Each structure stands twice: as C-alpha cells, then as structure tokens.
Amino acid sequence: MSWWRNASIYQVYLRSFADGNGDGVGDLAGLRTKLPHIASLGFDAIWLNPWYPSPLADGGYDVADYRDIEPVFGTLADAEELIADAHGLGIRIIIDLVPNHCSDQHPWFRNGLWDRFHVRDTEDLPNDWKSRFGGPAWSRLPDGRWYLHLYAAEQPDFNWENPVVEQEFEDILRFWLDRGVDGFRIDVADGLVKDFGKPDADLPYSDQDGVHEIYRKWRKIVDSYDGERILVGEMWLPDPVRFARYLRPDEMHSAFNFDFLCCPWNAGELRGVVDSTLAAHEPVGAPPTWVLSNHDVTRHVTRYGREKTGFSFADRQHGAPTDFELGTRRARAAIMLTAALPGGVYVYQGEELGLWEVEDLPDELREDPVWHRSGFTDRGRDGCRVPLPWSSQDGPSWLPQPENWHRFSVEAQADDPDSMLSLYRQVFARRREIDGALEWLDLGEDVLAFRRNSHTCVVNLSDRPIDLPAAPALTSIPLTGGQLPPDAAAWLF
Ligand code: NOJ
C-alpha cells in the first residue's frame, strides 16, 4: 500500500520545536537532533510549517523567498542535511507551500510587478471582501491604489490569472522535489482563484472551480518524481463533497479533515463526522485524514476541558473555564479514537506531551496578526505556539513557557509509563497493526465502537462505566472494576 494512505505524520512548527543554538527560537539544528525521538514515537513523516526567509508577520506564512531558508532557522545546506538525516531514519519530509500570497518583502512586490498581484485603481475600496484576520481585504499601495490580501496586509495575494505566477510555482515545486522533499502541504489550497464580480457573502475567493486545474498540473509534476511524493491540501470547506473533489485521482493525495478537528466531544456528532468523511472520500478513492490540533487552533486538551468542546475560529472561547484534568483524560481517549480510524493521522507537536493552550500570555508578547487586525478582540493563535518543553534545563524562549511546563517535558515524561508521551508511543507503535474497513459495533448509547479486521476500538463518551467485549490490549486510563470508565478508550486486538 502507498505510504501516504495510512501515514502517521508529526507536525513540526519549527520556530517552537527545538532550539539548537540557544537564541530562544527553534531551528533546523534543533530539529535534526530530535529526529530519532520523532522516529521512536512511530511517525512516518514530518510536516514542517514554512521555513522560508520571512519577516514573520504571520509566523512564516509571509514568504519573501521560496527557494531558501529563513536565517533564524538555518541554511539551505541545513535543510538538505535534515532531509538526508530524516530519510536515513525512514522519515519523510513534507514542506509547507504558500501559493495564495507572499510577503510584502517578496521581490515581486517590492519591485512593483503589479500584474502578479491584484491591484485596483479605485477611489473607494474595490469591493466588500474581508481579510480572514479581520478588517478589509484591501490596503493601499504607496501610490494610492489598492492591493488584495485575504490575510494580513503584509501578505499580498498572487494573481493566478497571470501565467508567470503559475510558472513560478511549478519551478518552486521542482526546486524542492530536486532536494528530496516527499511532499507539500498546500496552504489555503482552495483560495488561489477568485471571482471578483461577487460580494464577500458568496465567498468568491474560496473553492472556485478553476483551482482544480492548478492541482492537476502539480500532480503531474510530483508524479514525475520517484518515491511517491504527495500533495496535501489545506482547505476549510463546509461541504465534504466539495472537499473531496480536491482528492480526485489526478489532483491531491489527501487533505486535512477539519470537520473532525472542529467536532465536539460527543458520540453522535463524532460518529456523524466519521461517516460523512468516509462517505465523501470513498467515491474519489482517497484516504481520509484525522487531526485534533494544529498551529491555528486551540489545543484540544483545553477544548475538551470546556463546556463547548468544539472548535470555531469565530469563537475561540479564549479564557472560558477549563477543567484540564477532564480535557487531558478526553485527549488520551481521543488519540486512541483518531489513531484507530482508517487513513492518515496528523499529530501537532506538543499534543503528545498533553500541552494545553497557553491563554495567559502577556498581550504585549502576542505576535499573531489576528490580535491587532481583530481590533484586539481575538487573542489569536500564539497560545498553541509556545515552544515545547524538553527538559528542566530549557532556556528562555520567544514565547514564555508556563512555569510548570518542565513537569510536562519530554525528559519528565519519557520514563513514566502513565504519561501522555508513553501513551502516544504505544498508540503509534500499535497503529501499524491496524488495517481494514471500519464496521460500527453497538455497545450502547454514547459509546463509539468499531472493528477493523481483528482490531476493535471502544470509546466511552457516556457518563457511566461500560463493559468491554473482551480484555483490552491498551486503555487510555486504567479500567475500574473491569469496566471502561467515562471519557476513556480501549483497543482490543
Ligand atoms: C493557514 C495557515 O495554517 C495559517 O497559519 C496561516 O495564517 C494562513 N493559512 C495564511 O497563510
């Protein structure tokens, strides 16, 4: 079977992963030293957030040069050595490609090559489109004309109607494929084609039919290289059937399943998402993916410890009362559910340590442009980007760690059989033994249970302990009186 159909992929937010040179910012040198750790956890691949030269106006999603490495992170030679090291350990490398927009420091924008961007010469705002980070999607150039940015003002959108843009990205794909990367996570994959005639309410900058042509061309390029290189889409789309169109056999290989991430901790709703996901993917023959957290959303230990356990950008529930013990208990069960499902799984760095959303960062340290663009109403995404604790000796980092995080460090958890890290290690080792189609079992109300060949996964979302059909091989927390407690999961082989 193709590696990407059931891969376990670890997401590295480089800036906050491991600091190799002690400047408080994660880097490639740091990541290289931790590759054996990632391999030992049972992951097949790493997805790295953008590593390109960038003013970091949006954490690197404002790319100034698509063919180099941000100096704070290292050099192109470091990246090549990282790829070689990873391959030596059997780990593939997926990099982030940002084709919707660049940085306002990109040479095309600095040199005023305006036909490669969306520039309008109007008195008032060209239309009512809004930036996804808040405020209008248009800002003025020094000469008074407007340019489009669906995100921060420092992120001008490319004009994909210009063939030069298309050519450039095909070259960029080849540049990195030639250096051995195994795939691309495509940022805002639904957004490249725009219909300027329509108002904001119609979302005319998302999921326009023309965008599929781009991925058909990219698929041909990645397929022309050996070793099954892949395209993974980032699209937040409301309709799973529209979503699956990106995964037709001649387009992308897979994409992030955000319906699962956003879903509340509720048996019926989770089952509904699993079913609609499987149903949407089946006709196009693509594997689903399952993801609980990433660098844009509230960490799930926090979400699951709240009254509202789902996720929505419109309402992050920042600061809402949180029961961390409950959130942690559910997070343990959730990874056993996630990893038992058919398809690919993404793990966001730090969830294997049970890290929570850091919601008490001093406001003056916040870097996410969402904070200021929302008029200081949305505290944004910095709280899930606080650097990982490795040991009790960690130096200061670009965002400060909570004081007690050393108790959650890799060092502190490594030899503790009951730690979140030990659970992840067991889950991802044993995940390799699971295969086959999913078949639901009925073990009572508010219990999710399914079989895949000889493996059974049971998740108790009810408020009472339940009986298991046989003795489990792995549980998220110990059984009580032989029963699976509430908010716990079990695997039976
Ligand atoms: C999605 C990325 O995950 C997010 O971090 C970024 O801000 C936007 N795309 C814009 O590039």
From TrEMBL:
CDD domains in the record: AmyAc_OligoGlu_TS
Domain Glycosyl hydrolase family 13 catalytic: 11-385
Protein name, as recorded: Alpha-glucosidase
Pfam families, sorted: Alpha-amylase
Family stated for the protein in its record: Belongs to the glycosyl hydrolase 13 family.
GO molecular function: alpha-amylase activity
One GO term (biological process): oligosaccharide catabolic process
Transmembrane segments: none
